[in-house]
Write a structure and sequence with these properties.
heterodimer, A: mainly beta, five-stranded antiparallel β-sheet, B: mainly beta, seven-stranded mixed β-sheet
Chain lengths: 115, 114
């Protein structure tokens, strides 16, 4: 079954620094990939999605992600971190193994932003 | 104009009790889901309904019973609550007929069983 692996349960950056959150997927064919953000005591909010139209995907709040088939990766980046970016980030995948019917989540990465 | 709303937001109850969580979506989506988020923030799908029909039923104790009266509502009833049921439960919806459609989540129900 397809899955996603998020490297690092916690990532710490300084305000203004580059944000890089890593996600690798396993799938026999290119899947649909998503990044979600969860602020404390809230639900998950969609940041961006990859659906094969373009390999570089731009999302909300200045985030973007690049789909790299050769590396089976879909890393999330932001050029300059803000304090308000501190949250839990989840990578998720739909894949052919489940008929694209089940969205499977990674274990999440907590982004910590220091002044 | 909340897209996916679930109630209550917090639920504190004792072991052995029966409780329900309600969910409604006004997005016109054809599919609704329940996910469980444990204390380590891990999200796991429990159930999925498409047009009121159960299509996904993961390995969940049969004390958990979803009910979908119509495609805009998916409720979760839990019998004989146990300590291990304490978690945050998220309702979500999507338009599954559109392949690759993202899920839209409610704000969660934090269930605490004492």
């Amino acid at each position: 079954a397809q899955s996603v692996t998020q490297l690092g349960s916690h990532v710490s950056v300084s305000e203004g620094a580059l944000v890089l959150l890593r996600c690798n997927y396993s799938s026999s064919v290119p899947p649909y990939l998503f990044w979600y953000v969860q602020y404390p005591n809230q639900g998950l909010q969609l940041l961006l999605k990859y659906t094969s139209a373009a390999t570089l995907v731009k999302g909300i709040n200045g985030f973007e992600a690049e789909f790299k088939k050769s590396e089976t990766s879909f890393h999330l980046t932001k050029p300059s971190a803000h304090m308000s970016d501190a949250a839990e980030y989840f990578c998720a995948v739909y894949g052919p193994d489940t008929g694209y019917s089940t969205l499977t989540f990674g274990k999440g990465t907590m982004l910590l932003v220091s002044p | 104009d909340t897209a996916v709303s679930q109630t209550p937001k917090y639920l504190v109850t004792q072991m052995g009790n029966d409780k329900s969580i309600k969910c409604e979506q006004n997005l016109g989506h054809d599919t609704m889901y329940w996910y469980k988020q444990d204390s380590k923030k891990f999200l796991k799908i429990m159930f999925s309904y498409n047009n009121k029909e159960l299509i996904i039923n993961e390995t969940v104790p049969n004390r958990f019973s979803p009910k979908s009266p119509d495609k805009a509502h998916l409720n979760l009833h839990i019998n004989s609550l146990e300590l291990g049921d304490s978690a945050v439960y998220f309702c979500a919806s999507s338009q599954q007929s559109a392949e690759g459609s993202p899920l839209h989540f409610g704000n969660g129900t934090r269930l605490t069983v004492t």
